């Protein structure tokens, strides 16, 4: 318990005095995870809507691939992204290996199946007749999908929270494609791993508390949005029941 207490005190001290190295690592963590999450949302939500609302040859195979991706070990993702971006690899001429861009790519591959699968599940939980009713009211395809997204917003926010959680806690792929280079690709997870390997448990504890604080802050904001949406949905359903009665 002494190491935990020392880590907590040191984390507070590092944040209060705005330690330059720690602030640099925190900033890079926020940028890499934020961009990877944004990419996963832009790719995963539309794909989840498509899989939930369309029937086409190979749909079940694609859903199986998405479900497999949801449980894909990060080190496997890191291995394949490293192979693609390695200097002698197919995309090696871009010079992305051991850069923040490579970390964003790897983490986006980790988060996108999570966002896709949970978005698809959220839309599939909607009433079966909802799509027919919306179209019967004369909605365009764009209005149809926008209405479905609004109705499934609680599940979609849960998908975003899961996607962010997947990237903020990831260490294997980030270390493989980023190299954990100081002032370039060192983020909170890889920095914590490094300090543990050095036997500096107090510093590792401090970094872990900072990481937990960052994860909690972002997740708390998303949770507030989710709960507000849930309250709005509940009020609307109660009004509908009163109107019907």
Helix-residue proportion: over 70%
Largest sheet: none
CATH architecture assignment: Orthogonal Bundle
Structural class: mainly alpha
Strand content: under 5%
CATH topology: MetI-like fold
Number of domains: 1
| Shape assignment | globular
Rg is 21 Å
Could you give the order of the helices and strands? HHHHHHHHHHH
Poorly predicted ranges: 238-245
Number of helices: 11
CATH superfamily: MetI-like
The total count of strands amounts to 0
- The top-level CATH class is Mainly Alpha
Nearest-integer average pLDDT: 84
Question: N-to-C terminal Cα separation, in Å?
Answer: 59 Å
How are the secondary structure elements laid out?
Layout: H1 2-16, H2 20-53, H3 59-70, H4 74-85, H5 100-124, H6 130-136, H7 141-151, H8 153-168, H9 172-178, H10 188-198, H11 201-244
Helix pairs in contact: 1-11, 2-5, 2-8, 3-5, 4-5, 4-9, 5-8, 5-9, 6-7, 8-11, 10-11
Q: How is this structure best summarized?
A:
The protein has 245 residues and is mostly helical.
Walk me through what this model shows.
The chain contains eleven helices and no strands. It is mostly helical. The protein has one domain (2-233): MetI-like fold (Orthogonal Bundle), CATH 1.10.3720.10. Helix 2 (20-53) packs parallel to helix 5 (100-124), helix 5 (100-124) packs antiparallel against helix 8 (153-168) and helix 5 (100-124) runs antiparallel to helix 9. Mean pLDDT is 84; it is low at 238-245.
